Structure formats: structure tokens, C-alpha cells
Amino acid sequence: MPDFAHATLDNGLDIIAEVEPNAESAAVGFFVRTGARDEQSEVMGVSHFLEHMMFKGTAARTAEQVNLEFDTMGAQYNAYTSNELTCFFASVLPDMLPRASALLADILRPALRDDDFTTEKNVILEEIAMYNDVPFSNLYETAMERHYAAHPLAHRVLGTTDTVSAMTSRQMRDYFDVRYSPDNMVVALSGSVEFDREVERLAELCSGWARTGAKRDHGEPIASGEQFELRDERVNRSYLLMITPAPAYDDDRRYAATLLARLLGDQDNSRLHWALIEKGLAEEAAAEFDGRDRSGDYYVYASCDPKRIDLVQSILNEEIAMLGQSITEADLDRLRQKLLTQITLGGERPGGRMQRLGRDWTYLRSHRTLEHELELIQAVTLDDLRSLLQAFPFEPRTVGRLLPAE
């Protein structure tokens, strides 16, 4: 079992690690507690835009130098933005970890040059246009806007053509100055790590970063329960998406919620698979759970021939209604084993452990070992699943349908 280590710099930067001296690699990630839900509506998309700008160069490096240096150290590196966090990470051989940490720390203080801002804005607008051509993406974004209404969880991660087009570099810098503060970040390390030396290096690199006291609005979202229909002349299939409340990330019932969603709509051997896909009524049918910061969602999705959309929606509703009665111990054992295998495989590499470690600390401000997480999954019972269905009965439901133009 890896050894857990934690240190906090004077400016509030948390540094955490799961140290495995015998590991053949090491991983580091900077997790920023910021995403689309932390944006003002007029600058929607700024978090994702900033993620791009981090790789456009710093006071010490050009964009080409940043990318060349990552490649020179053989790093597997990337970044991503969600509604609630932004992450910059790299996996390397252990002797390259100091260089990877230093480079990530440097790009997290980007130059944000006006010329780069203007050029990258065009890249973002092209990305938005690309997703606008994807039917499910259109339905999902509209459903989230309808479901969360005035709550910032309705914000689109990419933003919109209008918000990104109107965004200024000054607005981006103002957002960066507040949200990218050390007291709003976590550095997670895993694998073959000399923790004390890494803390010393990170203190040298990041101790000049100033606290800002950045906070998040935790106002409780109120699900709309709205039903709506979209028409698009570019599509020839029908798409259906349901969003409904579920446990939050910091709720231990999230393990039961994950299992329940898989029982309903896993890729194989789920209720929707046998009721819809195996019978040739739909080409896609799935259900997922997403735990968020103090809230959560279930998503239920299907696509089919337009003539069958009413039948598919009716069967989907029936399967949800029967879920509590139809669960068996054999179902639970099978689902538990699949989830245990997936999480264990994800945690075998330092990169996977670093991601779990960083996300947990970002959301929970606490450490939970992989072994303890596996124990919590093993402990889920049929009564837990049925109790969860009473607390979160897939109501209210925001249901959207995307159909071909009439």
C-alpha cells in the first residue's frame, strides 16, 4: 500500500502524494478548483479558454519550448476542464519528475499575450462549431441549460459563440488572477516520489503565488423537471436525454449510485441493453451517474429510429419504475465485481492514482486510499440501492428529445 503524505505551503497550496518507492514511473497533477460553474455568464467558457492559454507560453518559455520540453522528457501530458475543476498533469519516469513539476508550475503562470489570445480564440470558436455539429452534444447542452436554469451548473464548458467572441483578454486576466491562486489549488503526486524534496522544489517554484480566498457559490440547484423537444434538419435519427438529481461527490451513497446507474444502463447486461438494444428498438441506450460538488446527476440516454421514439421513451420509463423491484443479489455481485476491477486497474499506474487522489482532495479535502474505496464498494447492499431509489427516485426529470425536422 502506498504511503500518503501531505504538506501545505504558507500561501495555502496543498501538496499531497501516494508514494510507491518501487514504482517504475511518477505522475504529477495541478488541480484547480475552478470550472464553468465558477464563471460569470458573460464570460462563459473562460476556464476552458484559459486551459488552452496555459500552453501558449510563459515569461520564460515560448509555446514551442513548452511542448518541446514535455516531449524531451518523454512525458505523457495533457489538461482538461470540467464544470468544476481544471487539471494539468504529466506522467514521466521518476528522474524526470522534478522537470515535469517545474514545467507545470511555470505554465500555470502564463504570459497571456494579446496576440496568443486572439489566435487561440479562433481555435476555441472552431471547437464550438465542431461540437455544434454533434447531435448529442447539442441535446446535452440544451438539457443542462433547461435542467439547471439560472444555476451556474447550466453553463457550457466551451462557452458559446457569442460569449467567446465577446470575451476580452482583460476579462480572462481578471478571472485568472482570482481563481488560479494557490489556496484554490492542489498538487497531487504519485509513484516513485521523493516527497520532501518535491515539497521543497514546489515551495521554491510557487511560494510567490498570492492567496486570493477564492470561493465557490454552493447555492443549491433546483431541477426544472421540464420536457422539451428540438428539431434539426441535419439529423435523421432521434435522440432522448433525461437528467435527474443524484447524490453529490461527497456523499458516500455515490458508490450505490454508480452501481444503480450501471444496472440500468451499462454497456452490456443492463436493463436498457436487454430491453432496447438487444430487441433492435434502439442503437444506443445508457445511464450514467455524475457526482458533483454538493449535488449530482443521473443521465439516461437513448437514440433510435424517429418512428420508435415514443416506444423507446415508454420502455425507458418502465425500466426505471421497475428498477427497485427487479434488483437481485446476483445483479449486485456482478456489478460490484466489474466496478472493483475497473477502479483497481485504474489505480495500478501512478497516473491513475494521481487523478483519483487529486480529484478526491479537490472535492473532499481529505484522502481516501484505493483499498478503502474498494471496501466501501464491497459494502454496498441491496437495501442501500433500494434506499437510494427512495431518496433519489429519478424525479424530477428534465427530458429532452432531438428529432429530424418535420
Fraction of residues in β-strands: 15-25%
| Sequence of strands across the biggest β-sheet | 1-2-6-3-5-4
Order of helices and strands: EEEHHEEHHHHHEHEEHHEEHHHHHHE
Number of helices: 16
Mean pLDDT reading:
96
Gross geometry: globular
Distance between the termini: 60 Å
The class by helix and strand makeup works out as: alpha+beta
Please describe the biggest sheet, giving its number of strands, its sense, and whether it closes into a barrel: 6 strands, mixed
C-alpha-based Rg, rounded? 22 Å
Keywords:
406 residues
Short description:
The chain has 406 residues and is of the alpha+beta class. Helices cover 44% and strands 19% of the residues. The protein has a 6-stranded mixed beta sheet, sandwiched between helices. It has a 5-stranded mixed beta sheet with strand order 7-11-8-10-9, sandwiched between helices.
Report on this model:
The chain has 406 residues and is an alpha+beta fold. The chain has 16 helices and 11 strands. The protein has helices at residues 46-53, 63-72, 97-107, 114-132, 135-148, 161-166, 169-179, 195-206, 254-265, 271-277, 309-321, 323-326, 329-346, 350-364, 370-378, 382-391; strands at 3-8, 14-19, 26-32, 76-81, 86-92, 185-191, 227-232, 238-245, 284-292, 295-304, 398-404. The strands form 2 sheets. It has a 6-stranded mixed sheet, with helices on both faces. Strand 1 (3-8) and strand 2 (14-19) form a beta hairpin. Helix 3 packs parallel to helix 8, helix 10 (271-277) packs antiparallel against helix 11 (309-321) and helix 13 (329-346) packs antiparallel against helix 15 (370-378). The protein is globular and about 60 Å long. The N and C termini lie far apart (60 Å). The relative contact order is 0.16. The mean pLDDT is 96.
